[in-house]
Design goal:
The two termini are 14 Å apart. This protein is an all-alpha fold.
Length: 241
């Protein structure tokens, strides 16, 4: 990535951010929502088996989202560390913790398939018990994803602060990201996060969505980035144009 200009890195971050959003929603929201019946383990198991190919595609989508999340997060770090290196480094720490939980959540979606296709190796369990275990792990996926959302919210607040303090991205996007991040961070208490979901989504309209559009269309101002990098002592000022 060192050979890319700041504008090119920003646009690539926008690409990864867009596709992370798409794959994450498919893998963690749409597909699990298709099969999960909250209080009916038998119906949930039947839905998984009846839509197994789609369910497996959802698992792949959820795990691909982890890779894409790391990709756009690292690209943003590369751009924003010239604003405040300490905050940027801390954002990477939070990003990695969040991505780890995101990966755990995606991996938990595999476990119901193990129970439902266990065969003789799980002969000690009745089918009703296996169905119940599959439902438990689907619910664990939801809990793990809530933890990821809390970390994601903290990360968004840090990124929003850096964007707000930068001179090469719109301050209003940074403010929107901080407010949106506060809403996602509320998922440290899932009932509170769920209660604030509508407000959080509205803040996303002035946070993440504009960020995607700005990165894809405008990127960053190379000259302003280079000036800030020079003041911060960043060694990558060379050939930023």
């Amino acid at each position: 990535m060192e050979g890319l200009s700041p504008r090119s890195r920003a646009r690539l971050a926008g690409v990864f951010e867009f596709f992370e959003g798409v794959t994450g929603v498919i893998g963690q929201n749409i597909v699990p929502g298709m099969v999960l019946v909250a209080r009916d383990a038998t119906a949930t198991a039947s839905n998984i088996l009846a839509n197994e190919n789609v369910y497996r595609l959802g698992i792949v989508s959820a795990l691909v989202a982890v890779i894409l999340h790391l990709a756009w997060g690292l690209l943003l770090y590369d751009l924003l560390r010239v604003v405040n290196a300490t905050v940027a480094r801390f954002s990477i720490f939070v990003l990695l913790l969040g991505a780890a939980m995101q990966a755990v959540a995606g991996t938990l979606l595999l476990v119901p398939l193990l129970f439902l296709h266990g065969g003789d190796s799980l002969g000690a369990f009745s089918q009703d018990q296996l169905n119940a275990l599959a439902l438990v792990f689907l619910k664990l996926n939801t809990q793990a994803n809530d933890v990821f959302l809390a970390f994601f919210g903290v990360w968004l607040m840090l990124i929003g602060y850096l964007i707000f303090r930068s001179t090469f991205l719109p301050r209003v996007i940074g403010a929107g990201l901080m407010l949106e991040g506060l809403g996602w961070a509320a998922f440290v208490s899932p009932p509170l996060g769920a209660a604030l979901f509508t407000v959080t989504a509205l803040f996303g309209v002035v946070g993440e969505l504009p960020l995607i559009g700005w990165l894809l269309i405008k990127g960053v101002d190379n000259a302003r980035w280079s000036a800030l990098a020079a003041r911060s002592g960043d060694v990558r000022v060379r050939d930023a144009g």
